[in-house]
Amino acid sequence: MGARTPETVSVFGSCVTRDNFNSRFNPGYREYFEVALSANQSSVIALMSPPVEEEYELLRELSDYDQWNIRSDLTRDFLPRVAELQPDHLVLDFFGDVHFGVARLPDGRYLTDNRWKTHFTDFYERHRAAGHLTLFRWTDDADVYFDLWTEALDGFAAYLARECPHTRVIVHRGYNTDRVLVPGRPRPVSLREHAKLAPFDVHGANAFWSRLDDYAIATHGWDSIDLRDLEAPSYEEHPWGPFYVHYTPDYYHRFMAEMHKISLRHRVDAPTWHEIELIEAAAREPAERRLGLEAAAVRVQRERLERQRARLKELEGLGVVRAARFAVGQRLRARRGARRA
Question: CA 228 to CA 211: how far, in whole Å?
């Protein structure tokens, strides 16, 4: 059997998705998939807005990669390029909408409010200083942002259906972790405290991210990759450093396995795919059994701890003298019970 031709992949999202197609995390992925186009950290709302063609200068030194991010976000060049490429797969994640939001110009055009990159242009600073920017973030009004986003996503879906009818769209269900593995600690610790990150509502952000993912999958019937069950933390040795969406290596390996599954499901007949599912289900059973036993043990310990806390609270309410009398009485009753036995 000859070598298989790699399937083409485009990514509209962030490192949440793009890192999976990186040899540091998944050596050998190029044998199966070729990433021929990507857009990084852009909002769907910005993508579906008319291009912003104003000239700008940088206010600080930025890498070539960061400068490309700014240009790509403002020009919306992803749209014509994905239509030209006709990739086999288009993988989406909505990091840009969850972490940044958008800024609206007076003429109604939007750009991603990327505080790491676009903020460092004289174009952005000029409009901000003049009061020309209206900011939209889910943290200010989730329903208003969701309405803007769904209108943009529906437009994006219609564009893809028209221009890339054979491209398989995959929603990568992202999430933020609030834990990090560090050397010398057996269990993950607080990511924000360890990495000295700015305060961030991880729970709220994950809930809104799920809302976006749910809509995209349910409305447009796209495939999805959902690895939230891994609860993968970040880790100290991550190549880009510990962060909310920089995960342990098992995350990236599992993602690639899910990509292979999606590819296989569309290349084999239904009976063969059913056999693959049976094999996978059987392989999962031992791990699920162990996890179930561990979860039950944790519940027992948690209940015991709650009882102890309740008893301590009860004793604290008795006062020092009454608590001492209660403790002495408990010991005497225990001794009498032992003698009877």
Answer: 14
Closest C-alpha among 224, 305, 309, 299 to residue 262: 224
CA separation for the pair 47, 112 (Å, rounded): 9
Bigger pLDDT: 309 or 18? 18
Side-chain-side CA neighbours of residue 200 (13 Å): 22
Query: Which of 96, 89, 91 is CA-nearest to residue 70?
Result: 96
- Residue 32 · residue 263 · CB < 8 Å: yes
Residue 12 exposure: Cα atoms within 13 Å on the Cβ side? 28
* The predicted structure's pLDDT at residue 327: 64
3 with 32: CB under 8 angstroms?
no
- Going by C-alpha positions, the residue among 208, 251, 198 that lies closest to residue 15 is 251
- Please, which contacts does 333-340 make with residues 24 or more away whose CB atoms are closer than 8 Å? none
Tokens 């509209």 — which residue? 12
> Is pLDDT above 70 for 115?
yes
